[in-house]
Amino acid sequence: MTTTPATPPLPDTVTDAPSNRLGASYYKLFTGTVVSNLGDGIGTIAYPWLASAVTRNPILVALVAVAQRLPWLLFTLPAGVITDRVDRRKAMVSMDVLRGILTLFVAFAVLRDQGALPGPDELDLVTGTNTGLFLIVLSATLLLGMAEVLRDNANQTIMPNIVRPDQLEKANGRVWSIEGIMNLFVGPPLGSLLILVAFSLPFFVDSATFFVAAAMVFLIPGSFRAEREADEQPQSFRQDLGEGVRWLMGHSLLRPMAIILGLMNGASMITGSVMVLFAQDVLGIGPFLFTVMFFGMAIGGFVGGNVASTISTRLGSGTCLALTLLGTAAASLLIFVFPYWPVVMVTMGLVALLGILWNVITVSLRQTIIPPRLLGRVNSVYRFFAWGMMPIGAAVGGVLVWVLEPSAGREWALRSTWLAQAVIYLGLYLFGRAKLTTAKLEAARQAATA
Q1: Per-residue CA distances from 438 to 42, 172, 448 (Å)
Q2: Of 12, 36, 211, 410, which residue is 20 to 30 A from 3 by alpha carbon distance?
Q3: The domain spanning residue 130 has which CATH number?
Q4: What letter would DSSP give residue 443?
Q5: For residues 81 and 379, what is the distance between their CA atoms, to the nearest angstrom?
Q6: How many domains does the chain have?
Q7: CA-CA-CA-CA torsion for 349, 169, 450, 261, nearest 10 degrees?
Q8: What are phi and psi of 23, to 5 degrees?
Q9: Ranges in the chain, pLDDT < 50
Q10: Does residue 6 form part of some domain?
Q11: In this predicted model, what pLDDT tens digit does every residue of 296-322 receive, in sequence order?
Q12: Proportion of the chain in helix, strand, coil states, percent, rounded to 5
């Protein structure tokens, strides 16, 4: 059975790119990633601080994180079918434009209520909830999450069309590295400064980054529709989705990998959903030190993105995945025992390095072994498990603090989230060490490229 390519080869695509270069299309995608993740880094400061200025209720603060991640549970599977039916480049552009408009709406809403919001050092004066602004933030966050699902799924599926298979780890490593720098090193300090100028200003800047990112992806030439078999008959939406589900569930390596990653992300959101409260009420820090603390993650992410391919080659990909699980468990336990911001900064840097290492290995593996015509759908099913647990973990974090606070006190209730994360990661290490071995990963890669 023959296949029909989606479009003729492009001068700077994988077919004709020089062996030592990633190609012009990749660098346009890379530049869009730089800009959009600068906005995301600003948002990592702006949104949590806005939520904590609107309400001090841990469940409501966690609910914003739930709304942000809920689309990964509800919309990921349909997004995969859409990704395999449309031009993936156009989908990315459309979603970036939509995110820019939504963020602009939030910016104007914050500007309207800016005079009533407390300053960064006056959060202890918040006694109630600004219901109107909270509902706007909650709704916008949910819609932004839905746009992010489709955009990110298209982003991962377009990469194999831009670089060669042997360049995927290098290309993905650079992307993950710059994402870490922008998200954690450049964006948050800029976000802190913008908040000090005006509470609405970071949202205006964040909105602009989405529009710039859309323009950069728009400049990538060509069409990026999924390949179809020459004699393949059109299927219904449900049939397309079922094909992707069956492929993943029948794969002996990707199925447990997706489940393990889902539990990892769920555990991480137990702490992440109340991180701003942990920083304020346990670490006793404001937005500036909150930003400085995230420098550790930025440095770890930068190092991880640039050395992931080398470490994977020397230690073995399976060993690296095991180290990620065990190392994160140890780091979480250390934060539980020693809740001081320098300790958190260093340990979060280690966690970021290990997380980038995991992502580079597993994303490159998926891009290599999943058939191109199924990549959008299988990728979405994988991410349904991997990211769908995040809203559940976020809800667990808020409820855990709310339940323990009356008996254990605010500080120990917030610290307990790190103990819960450590226990889950340790269990995943014990389960995954035999499932995700180097031999199994290499065998899957060789079978796909044979």
Answers
A1: 37, 19, 16
A2: 12
A3: 1.20.1250.20
A4: H
A5: 10
A6: 1
A7: 30
A8: 100, 155
A9: 1-18
A10: no
A11: 777 887 787 778 878 888 899 999 999
A12: 80, 0, 20
